[in-house]
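Bench notes, bay 3.
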Amino acid sequence: MIAIRWVLSVIFIVQMYVAMLVIGIVFFPYALATRDGAFAACKAYCRWVILTARLLCGIRSEVRGPVPEGEVVVAAKHQSFFDIILLFNAVPRGKFIMKRELMYAPILGQYALRIGCVPVDRGKRGAAITKMKADVARGAARPGQLIIYPQGTRVAPGATKPYKVGTGLLYDQLAQPCVPVATNVGLFWPKRSLLRTPGLAVIEFLPAIAPGLPVPEFMRKLEAEVETHSNRLMAEAGFSG
């Protein structure tokens, strides 16, 4: 049985990247003409990945909680590529804070810029935060939900990594509500493995944190909400830590 799962996982991964190429090419004229075209392409790709993950790997998915629709900051737990897929598919107009290196990824980078993602240079903490705030301010005219991963990278279930203050500074600068998002997807789509495991992958939108909190208080509240609810989702799926 495990051998079959490995084979199906590899087939899934290969076809997932082939689909990215095909959808990217097919939608390219539409995406070039209008931002709506870029969103249509990205949504179509997300739906394809969600469907094939269920059919080939037995990964069902579920979105819980009220999906934000207005101008908000979305601060999400990041465990694997699949939480990006589920999150972007759920919100109307998602745009990510992303590593600048991804701008140069074929298809992915071009579409990310088209939908309004904000590339950020990695570097010294202070310089990176200043650059990120400036880039967000310049892109603020493009409507949508600004998605950021407070830990800055994928974090495997059971692992710990500090929350970076950049999320709090954006929350303070933009004066928008922040919607925390919990997840358990790393249990089924691991960070560094080709094997995909059957189960129910969940992202959960939590109650929004209203603007106006001091940054340290906001950061404590954000981390407590995201970690507590992510741990609950993982325990619900049978993860004991």
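Next record in the batch:
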Amino acid sequence: MKVLMTIMKYIGWCIKGIRRKIRRMSPTQKKLAIVAMIALLAGCFMGNGIGKASEKKRSEKKVQEAVAKVQKKAEEKLDSVEKELYALQDQLHDHSVELPWNLVLVNGLHPMEEGYVPELTEIQPGYSVDTRIANATRKMLSDAEKEGLHVEICSAYRSVERQEQVFGDSMKERVKSGMSYWKAYEETTLNVAIPGTSEHALGLALDLISNQYTELDEKQEETKEAQWLAENCYKYGFILRYPPEKTNITGIIYEPWHYRYVGEEHAAKIKQLGVTLEEYLQEHYQAEEGGQ
């Protein structure tokens, strides 16, 4: 406390001394003194501002350097992952078994061969399939009719161009309902295959419904027609392509109306194993064929 009092007294003496000196100055000297004091204060403020600006620049530079380091590490990691993926793809290619036409896999990760168009046969007015499955398709529909069932085809072969239209229309409906563009895209991909990744373009897929219930939703499974198809389609070489609780594997929601031809032998195995086409090819068919 004594030290503070001493400092305050000293400051007081300094102020009094400055005042006495100012009184003795001429008007010109007083003006010069005021200008000097203003310059001194301005210099202090400017120095403080420049110091803060410099400090800000240094901070920004440090942040930029840190971001650059992170980006560099991320790019290095990405390059490493890409190299591993390419190496894995080469290994898979070396050990893979060439698939016959009836087992060709087409999905979101395996687009169909660009420009591929199958030889088609019309099985009902407006509906065609790959010629190689026409007889099996007719037999299945005929046998269902003999059982007193009424199965209708609502989609068969679809060109890539037609698939583009279907995909676009589905997205537009979702956007109109209030969904954002990206949400509409995400929802559409779960219901409609992206053009170039649809089995319909292979001519090996059919959408089959009951004429008693024509909606494409899960209630379709409750119809007699859907139940008969699910139980008997393997006899004609077909499988229920997108079964329930397999979306994480197929990339498509449960569709009790979508059937895919794979041949009688493979359809029977897939039904017995209770697997999807993806699981069958990866875990069973490749192992069996590769071992021969």
